[in-house]
Amino acid sequence: MKKLLIVVVFLIVAPQVSAQQERAITTAVPFLNIAADARASGMGDLGVATSFDAYSQQWNPAKYAFATQKMGIGVSYTPYLESIVNDVSLLNANFYNKLNDRSAFAFSIRYFGLGEIELRQTFDQNATLVKPNEFSLDGSYSLKLSQTFSMAVGGRFISSNLRFQDGTQDSQAANAFAVDIAGFYRSPEIAYSNFDGRWRAGFNISNLGGSIQYDEGGQENFLPTNLKFGGGFDFIFDQDNVLAVTTEFNKLLVPTPRDFDGDGDIDVDDNDEYQNIGFFQGVFESFGDAPDGFSEELKEVTWALGAEYKFREAFMLRSGYFNESEEKGSRKFFTLGAGFKFKSTQIDLSYLFSTSQVRNPLENTLRFSLTFNLGEEFYND
């Protein structure tokens, strides 16, 4: 019963793929890849090269060095599988503080609750209620290496509590540690013929770490190690009107499942061989291990395009599109979003429309974020 429950939970939280997509890459703790804030999710789930905000911890912590306020707090709520259940959700809280004009530190917590589940060994047995959950605690430090470029390092503790005590086995949560390395570039404001502009670029290698193990001596599962990189441009038409356009690419630095024994199928024996791949070996192999070569490697790269229009830093409209190969998960969706800022408080909303035949767990879901910007202002010209 316990093993069956774990399988069901993983099927809920893992990316939705069809049975024929045998080489779609799956990992443990996929909740780390869910866009946790409404601003990023309103622009097609991107954020590595967008302008700074309080939720930069997930996307690119190097952006905190370009914060315009002394400190800030951000909290967000994301319902999950809302059309099926009403008690599965992702909660996220962030805090950042600028030490000076060149450096900042930040902390965040992400909690993914899977609601209440009834456990029974037989149909007539009284049910035992359990509440599986996963969470992560993050910390980061960012530093400007020049007036236009910053880097950051981050650490993450991950806990996945998807096992439950039945009196015969240990039910401790599976834990892991990971690190992030990120960089962010923002050019000075440049005068063009009809408008001013500013270039942006960023990268983030996140969740670098070993594997996570649910059973002592059992199978080890890869963390969702990611490489994100992207760029963007701000069209500054005047003091009140700014249009920001951004694109982002993402590659899982995890080995591709493949037929190791040459029997024409990916089976249990291949899985054992797959799990024996070391973490560092897997990161480097992930750039060239797809069985169909370079064409399949390209299919493992997702891309997103998003735009944000700001009026007087008080009202924001957003839209975006996210694309993933049909053979690697088939996540394809449009997003819309809006933001409203009054003094030091900002509210953001976003909505997702799936364009894939595979149903998205966040389809037709309204997501919320609330940000408080506090303290003195910093000017990053």
UniProtKB/TrEMBL annotation:
User: Short name of one Pfam family for this protein?
Assistant: PorV
Q: Which UniProt keywords apply?
A: Signal
Q: Signal: is it a keyword of this entry?
A: yes
Family annotation (InterPro entries): PorV, T9SS_OM_PorV
**Gene3D superfamilies, per database record:** Outer membrane protein transport protein (OMPP1/FadL/TodX) (2.40.160.60)
Protein name per UniProt: Type IX secretion system outer membrane channel protein PorV
Against NCBIfam families, the record matches this protein to: PorV_fam, T9SS_OM_PorV
- According to the UniProt entry, where is the signal peptide? 1-19
Residue ranges annotated for the Type IX secretion system protein PorV domain, each copy included? 18-258
